[in-house]
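Aggregate trends can hide what the representation actually does to any particular protein. In the encoding step, the backbone of a single protein was reduced to a row of integers, each denoting a local shape. The record that follows shows the chain in one-letter code together with its fold in token form.

***
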Amino acid sequence: MAILITPFSYSPQASSLYLSSKLHNTNIIYSTYGYRSSTPLRSFVLCSSQQLSQQISSPTPHPILIDKSFLCISEAKSENELWAASSLRVRIFYDFQHDTLNTEDHTKYLTEREFEALTERIAGKRVGFGRVSCINATLPFSKVSNVAYDLSTSCKFSQDNVELVVVGTLDINQCIRLPDEITGMKPKGIGADFARGYVSNVCVAKEMQRNGLGCALISKAKTVAKDMGISDLYVHVAIDNEPAKKLYMKCGFVYENEEPAWQARFLDRPRRLLLWTDLSNS
């Protein structure tokens, strides 16, 4: 499995990764978005890590050290890469009972839904979103296949005749608010819909933890967000997700607000914190 790093916000109507009433109404992983559908998964879904809210799994006993000279962190350039990123998110956000039939079919279905939602957001077809960018951390297939074969086969894609594997991913959403999430308050007034942004769907493959990929993804996200004209960047994180909170605060985010207890109960998920960072002077 892999580890989830921030709350991912999926709304029932907008989400493509939300497959059960919990998935959809719970919001996913961090606070970003790839929306999920309201079709029940029942026995197949044990938990939605993002549930859009991000639940970080226990650390890998023997982390794999990667050669960072081969690591590339950039905006997704093709649909094949978006599909690989969607596959990683499903791999991280959902737990399946391995003794249950049709797990592969459900995994494929969830990936198709996430891919559809992600491509629609990036194409500007989702109401309420300005520009949306998917940022991925990738490694050559040859550097991953010998240490994490399942990851390398499920999250690979080809670019310029080179096989690569997505090992970490997140979205930047230029918008006023994310569905079913606390709304940021900065900036105020005219232009807030272009100057406010949210990081969501932050995740790193469990096999690749402890290599600084989370910080590297957030750093790249800040650069891309600033180029998009975003001055105030937000991220949602589960209140009990200490590893994720430490990551974001290390990257310069500070506390702004928190989700009311009644809203968390209504959405059947852990309460979220809203963290903020100022990009205008960075």
Observations:
- Residues 136 and 169 are 4 Å apart (CA to CA).
- The longest helix spans residues 103-122.
- The first strand starts at residue 3 and ends at 4.
